[in-house]
Amino acid sequence: MIQIGLTDHLEGPRERPSAAILGEVAELVRLADRLGVRFAWFTEHHDHVHEGHLPTPLLFALHLASQTRRIHLGTAIICLNLHHPLDVAEQTAVAELLMLGRLAPGFGSGSTPDEFRLFGLDETGDDERHARFTEALGIIRDAWRGEIREREPGPTPGYFQVPAHRPLPVASPDLWDRTWIAVNSVGSARIAGALGLNMLFSHLRTPAQYRQYAETYRTAGGHGLIAANRPVFVGPDDQTAWSCIEPALRRLWRRFQAEGKISAETPESDHLPDLAGHPINFIIGGPESVARQLRELWSIVRFDIANVEVRWAGLEHEQVCDSLRRLTEQVMPILNAQGQPVLAPAQNNTA
To answer: What residues contact 128, with CB distance under 8 A and at least 6 apart?
Structure first.
């Protein structure tokens, strides 16, 4: 059974008040909670990287826990390479207890060069980055369980010198099973599988890459949930959907080109589906079209969570809310009528 999650980067122009952006996303999450959406994740960005206004997603998740009833709230992601893992472990353990089991923490091994520089850190190669990430995750796991033991001598020193002690608070026993890893490479898929954590995919990756990561994850022993991420806009019909999304799609395409994700030599097409293709990978249409596209993606990689990004510059807030309503109220029944897979409202499972 496939469920729905939201991811939001809390993007907006630098000059727009951050309070307005936080309030807009909070309203969207409250609506998602009423509609039965299972997850809402928030992303860490510093100094307006990727136009983000939120450097502390855990605080926002904790804040929204008091305004919602069922939806699981979390981080997609906390960039572990910018933080000491013991500090992250303590903060997430406190948040988990205050949120009464609705925290869905997500961690990643990467961040942007600009954010590295802000923290006075050097970028590392993939091997060292993944090794640091694995060690940091181990510290978080042990801290949540309430006991960090003396590190056994090994051929190489650890990246984090954490003395043996008994951290407080001890997190809920199932928090580790509710933890997610951002997977954008075979290496991170292997880490997620070996540690028994759930996987979050980026919308920048192709269906073939999703399938490769999923195969690596299962081979490494992974048995958790997989969330496939896509920008999604659901209009009342195909023609209206494309008309509504065009300003947002063109802004996003130009931004991706400015960021180097799309070649500077690539001309901006007059054919909107060309702009919506890879690496943007935007799912757009009326309820029937969106249901078909989600089913096609699921046929390539058997994901558990349709993790959608619905809020984009160039869309009015009410258009975003209407799109989310159509996704939950119209796309879901179409898929239900067609049999599995089913986009389902929230259930009381642990992840």
So the answer is: none
Please compute, for residue 305, the number of CA atoms within 13 A of its CA located in the half-sphere on the CB side. 27
Rounded to an integer, what distance in angstroms lies between the CA atom of residue 49 and that of residue 10? 11
Q: What is the 3-state secondary structure (H, E, C) of 327-345?
A: HHHHHHHHHHHHCCCCEEC
Residue 350 pLDDT greater than 90, yes or no: no
- Neighbouring CB atoms inside 10 A of 43's CB total 23
Written as six digits, the tokens of 168 are 């407080």
Whether residue 350 lies inside any domain: the answer is no
Mean pLDDT along residues 212-221: 98
| In a domain? residue 306 | yes
Total of domains in the chain: 1
Q: Is residue 351 part of a domain?
A: no
pLDDT tens column, 238-282: 999 999 999 999 999 999 999 999 999 999 999 999 999 999 999
Give bridge partners of residue 181 from the DSSP assignment.
Answer: 107, 199
Domain of 167, in residue numbers: 2-332+340-344
Expressed in angstroms, the distance from the first to the final Cα of the chain is: 13
**Residue 232 main-chain phi, psi, to 5 deg:** -140, 135
Has residue 113 got a pLDDT over 60? yes
- CA separation for the pair 213, 209 (Å, rounded): 6
Residue 60 lies in a domain: yes
> pLDDT per residue over 2-60, tens digit each?
899 999 999 999 999 999 999 999 999 999 999 999 999 999 999 998 899 999 999 99
For residue 151, which amino acid is it? R
Euclidean distance between CA atoms 56 and 213, whole angstroms: 28
Q: Is the pTM of this model over 0.90?
A: yes
Check: CB of residue 226 under 8 Å from CB of residue 213. Answer: no
| pLDDT at residue 116, as a whole number | 84
Tokens of 231: 């920008």
What is the residue-averaged pLDDT of the chain? 93
**What CATH number is attached to the domain comprising 184?**
3.20.20.30
Is the alpha carbon torsion for 155, 157, 159, 164 positive or negative?
Answer: positive
Task: Give the DSSP H/E element, type plus range, for residue 189.
Answer: helix 186-195
